[in-house]
Automatic annotation (TrEMBL):
Record's keyword annotation contains Membrane: yes
Ranges annotated as spanning the membrane: 6-31, 52-69, 75-96, 133-152, 164-185, 197-217
Domain of life of the source: Bacteria
Entry keyword set: Membrane, Transmembrane, Transmembrane helix
Protein name per its UniProtKB record: Sulfite exporter TauE/SafE family protein
Urease accessory protein UreH-like transmembrane domain residues: 9-212
């Protein structure tokens, strides 16, 4: 049976894929303009596989580190549980565009990581092969993104590095339909996911789920 956490991560990626379009849509679209026009789907798949690989690596790293400390301290595990619920609420508000709830985190990621990694672009361009498309996706998988960072807080609650990587894999799979549709030029899905009412509805789901996670964490704290 699939772990409910993996299912939740997939749903989070699916619901939040409208934000992925805003963050990475231009990158995915430019990829199609810069590559072999006879194989757009193959290049789009390669790009997204590379992106998922970076997510999995990040998930394995944070889960491996946090699981070590969680086994040493029950309080650390509870803090992680609270963080998961809190970030779920923040990303819900972010998707609804009711506030810049995660922009500070994206700015931090840009300063600490992204401004250094983006320099590697010169080794990949031009994107004239599938391996380069995959490498391009792997690089841009580290683009500062509040949605990804929120998913990583879930990965941090995993018991092993492998479980953390799987959480991020399922999250990435949830974003695949929207991101692949960009590569194939589909516009209807983009408009639907970015419609104000759609953002409010989808963001509300994440907020309520975040509240649910906080209630569970509180119950564990009291008992």
């Amino acid at each position: 049976m699939i772990d409910p956490l993996f299912v939740s991560a997939f749903i989070m990626g699916l619901i939040g894929s409208g934000h992925c379009i805003a963050m990475c849509g231009g990158i995915a679209s430019s990829l199609q303009l810069a590559t072999d026009k006879t194989r757009p789907l193959q290049y789009s798949i390669a790009y997204n596989i590379g992106r998922a690989g970076s997510y999995m690596l990040a998930g394995a790293l944070v889960a491996g580190i946090s699981s070590h400390f969680a086994t040493q301290s029950h309080w650390f595990a509870l803090i992680l549980a609270f963080l998961s619920g809190l970030f779920m609420i923040l990303v819900g508000l972010y998707i609804m565009r009711l506030g810049a709830s995660l922009q500070w985190l994206e700015s931090l990621g840009k300063t600490l990581v992204w401004q250094h990694l983006v320099k590697l672009n010169r080794f990949i361009m031009p994107i004239n092969s599938l391996p380069k498309a995959m490498a391009y996706g792997a690089l841009w998988g580290w683009l500062p993104c509040g949605l990804v960072y929120s998913a990583l807080t879930w990965a941090m609650t995993s018991n092993t590095a492998l479980d953390g990587a799987l959480v991020m894999l399922f999250f990435a799979l949830g974003t695949f339909p929207a991101m692949l549709s960009i590569g194939m030029g589909a516009q209807v899905l983009h408009k639907v996911l970015n419609h104000p009412w759609a953002r409010i509805a989808l963001g509300s789901v994440l907020i309520w789920y975040g509240i649910y996670l906080l209630i569970i964490a509180t119950d564990k704290l009291l008992h």
